[in-house]
Amino acid sequence: MYRTHTCGELRINSVGEEVTLSGWVQAIRNLGGMTFIALRDRYGITQLVFDENTPKDIIALANQLGREFVIKITGKVAERSSKNPKMETGDIEISVSDIKILNKSETPPFTIEDETDGGDELRMKYRYLDLRRNPVRKNLELRHKMGQEIRRYLDGERFIEIETPALVNSTPEGARDFLVPSRMNPGEFYALPQSPQTLKQLLMVSGFDRYFQVVKCFRDEDLRADRQPEFTQIDCEMSFVDQDDILRTFEGLAKHLFYEIKGITFNETFPRITYDDAMKYYGSDKPDLRFGMRFYELTDNAKGKGFVVFDSVEYIGGFCAKGCSEYSRKQLDELTLFVQRPQVGAKGLVYVKYNADGTFKSSVDKFYSQDDLKRWADYMEAQPGDLLLILAGKKSTTLTALNVLRLEMGDQLKLRDKDKFAPCWVVDFPLLEWDEETKRFFAMHHPFTSPKDEDIKYFESDPGKMHANAYDFVINGVEIGGGSIRIFNSDLQQKMFSALGISKEEAEIKFGFLLNAFRFGAPPHGGIAFGFDRWCSVFGGSESIRDFIAFPKNNSGRDVMLDTPGKIDKKQLDELYIQVLPVQK
Amino acid sequence: MYRTHTCGELRINSVGEEVTLSGWVQAIRNLGGMTFIALRDRYGITQLVFDENTPKDIIALANQLGREFVIKITGKVAERSSKNPKMETGDIEISVSDIKILNKSETPPFTIEDETDGGDELRMKYRYLDLRRNPVRKNLELRHKMGQEIRRYLDGERFIEIETPALVNSTPEGARDFLVPSRMNPGEFYALPQSPQTLKQLLMVSGFDRYFQVVKCFRDEDLRADRQPEFTQIDCEMSFVDQDDILRTFEGLAKHLFYEIKGITFNETFPRITYDDAMKYYGSDKPDLRFGMRFYELTDNAKGKGFVVFDSVEYIGGFCAKGCSEYSRKQLDELTLFVQRPQVGAKGLVYVKYNADGTFKSSVDKFYSQDDLKRWADYMEAQPGDLLLILAGKKSTTLTALNVLRLEMGDQLKLRDKDKFAPCWVVDFPLLEWDEETKRFFAMHHPFTSPKDEDIKYFESDPGKMHANAYDFVINGVEIGGGSIRIFNSDLQQKMFSALGISKEEAEIKFGFLLNAFRFGAPPHGGIAFGFDRWCSVFGGSESIRDFIAFPKNNSGRDVMLDTPGKIDKKQLDELYIQVLPVQK
Questions:
Q1: Which of chain A's residues have a Cβ under 8 Å away from the Cβ of B188?
Q2: What's domain A291-412's superfamily in CATH?
Q3: Contact A481, A234 (CB under 8 A)
Q4: Torsion from C-alpha of A506, A509, A514, A518, nearest 10 degrees
Q5: Cα–Cα distance between A62 and A403 in angstroms, integer?
Q6: pTM for the full predicted model
Q7: Which CATH superfamily hosts domain B137-272+424-571?
Q8: Half-sphere exposure of A111 (CA within 13 A, CB side)
Q9: B50-81 pLDDT, tens per residue?
Q10: Which in A58, A167, B168, B312 has the greatest CB count within 10 A?
């Protein structure tokens, strides 16, 4: 028997008991006559003590120990003379009477502490050691708990979890597929699913009216910091529902998770913002609602006063930064440089200080009177002491730049508290997106997303005007999930394909099995998919999904610990009827 | 709103209520003045009635309906004059006042009934329609419930579910890997995991002392009826445990599932049979313990009486078929032919009838006296009225043939009731398996399985004699899971590699990352993996795992519904730096 208790379990009421513990040596303090060892496992740390009462041979063994050795000890629980209130087991220690070294350890390449001295690369190579660290372990524990609660809730709502295949057909829409050569079908390939979208729609045709799956999905995209080639999706679909049923159901899921995981109760319905409003007021389809600073358009208000920059642009708008009228010249210059960076792309920044005494000081005083500025300030609901920040230019890019500036001000004013949560729904997304390059419409969500009833009339006349029954779930400016009500009527589907420039033949080749299925009684249906990794990261207060994945890949799609991907024997490739082409680097 | 109730919900206490239901038209009975429609959804069937009180336009619409049309109806719940006790909703019907056709359906290619007229191939092609059928839907509902209960139990036992990657390194041990070319690392490949074996061992090194995962695994093998290229494993691992801890923990899981899913309580500990005994008494490492008929060896007992067949063989053994002494000549001839089939491979069958009057009649009366036969019968614990069935030959093949014969007799005597469950553990598997062809030992489980302490002394002298801390979980003769205590000591691991003829260099290349990890304090650990598909099939009383997979593949690894695998554009392959070799068929 390796242990009677875990290292996180013993309390003052066990004093006098003989116990056996197993774990890792976290730290050794040798104080001459006494030695203290901190013994660690997944559940906590317990202090071991070796003193003049400890048998000599046991002390000799203890002296051989090093950091991260795996040991099993037996001893008596004793009350500590100097208690440690920061440790859950801080009231007690173990007077060790027996010790067994279960395994030795070389000195780890970095310290196994909450704050480690190991760099990112080293920790990834030795990920199994990084996972011993408290914060990393807690991330995976959070993920585990989220997973269990998600299932508990959906099971309670009569959703049925159905596994869809991982070896599917390649659908050359959207991102690139990962391909898998088939040995038994030479020259043919499976693809790994980018999402189980079409399969879950088939399950709706099958009559499983509430489906979910926590499922690995794969996208062969060039990676950014917050993207992984494989990621986990909470995939859901419902039949005989409209958009409101879906939002209500999954708002229930979110509230359940907020309560069970974060201890937060939301009594009110989550805000629902249309896509158009989100863009207008926040310049983003995933607004961070932890703080205000919504945008006010000044285009009409600010033109015609001789300020050429404003007079020549499509859009002028800004927001009010509360209590920032004392911003220094240096701070304002920095903000100007911030918005002028190529990735933001604004020409310049106009500021208006609404001084505490009710006067105004702005970068455009030459063109605008105190009355003009007062009118702006009133319109933007500013008070004395506030600062107006204004950008101008092409509407879409200016809104985007304002969004970046707003988030920066949120950071500066510490309004983006990771322990505060502001969820919302963004609804009524545009159905189609015009692509200037190819001069055609693309589906903003996917080709099976249904337009809003009242917009169907624009299919021929003005397709770009149509809005969709499509929605995103956003927390703190992070898109956690998205979905739509699907088209289930074949005439409407045909109209959609026409708008997308997809011929009947092409549709048959690309989506034949789904269109076939729809001929046999498809129910009205819709769904949503959540990014599980991302939801975990938002709940965990981190910006990186990697922190919530046990064995993540780096930006080149490599697992540096497993050292994969790697070369493969010719024999193995021959069996698959493929060969590697010469690579020009 | 599409519905106020499901089609399985309404009872007599709702009579008089106005309700709205949505679902599929299961059947239409037009009795002239009255029309009855059975409306189906996932939850059941409700009868709709259209009669002289139904508005004319509604009747006109009802007359346009066909099988599998999707409709929404509103009406009043009425008590049926002739109730149907076989239906849960059989006390009521709906007097329809409004109807809306949500979607039409073509006539399905087979009937959507419990017993369908569709053949296997047709049902697989239209799997989404097959899934509408009650028995198939119930299989997936069983699987869902199993999945939830497995998680509930393991979560309660402080197991933490950790997702391991699906894009891993290729390990050319065991079965063939499915490979995935990496676009970002040209000429290199990922492999899909055959199991997360090494990764879960790394998690033990990380200190997650109780891990599980319900995870897709992949093996590129030539398929049999009960194999799929992708399958789901309940993968578990624990630290600081010995074999007994693991068996106890997962016996707990099994009992939980037996109780929650099948309503069966097991008070006793599951039988534990050593591999050697299982082979000796049942000729199989997965004995079906729903019935007895264990084997008795007669080798010493039956030799030396002049019967050349027996005198010349390594092994003679048989079992007693209770109450079968009246088997006819024809039945016995059929059994003889059965064991002589090439896939069984016995030379012949010796029978001894223990007649009700206490006399014996056998196929070897010429060589054995009544006393001889009485001695056999007593040894084999036979009673008057029983039949002894005896095979002889090379020991291993004869035991295997006896196993097949025993199962056949179990079937003939209807002792293999699919609603009866006999779980057991098979323990103490051999550590190594000698391969005659390559003249070397292979690991019977895998190279990290630990030998039994008392057998370590045979590593150099007689490796084949060693037994392992390896165990299988078997229900009704089906292997549901298996696992082992792992080696965590590097000296022992080195001995194991030597026994397997794996050099240090080779070990480094193949298992380097794991051996590396083991240098930093690996705890004692072990685990088990269950075949989730198979466990579902045993609980569901089916021999085919396909019935419990939403979208299975056929024996050529094809999904005939998705029509995958398929050809891929050259452009896509070019991006992956691979090309297809010409295929010679």
A1: 565-568
A2: GAD-like domain (3.30.1360.30)
A3: yes
A4: 60
A5: 59
A6: 0.95
A7: Bira Bifunctional Protein; Domain 2 (3.30.930.10)
A8: 6
A9: 999 999 999 999 999 999 999 999 999 999 99
A10: A167
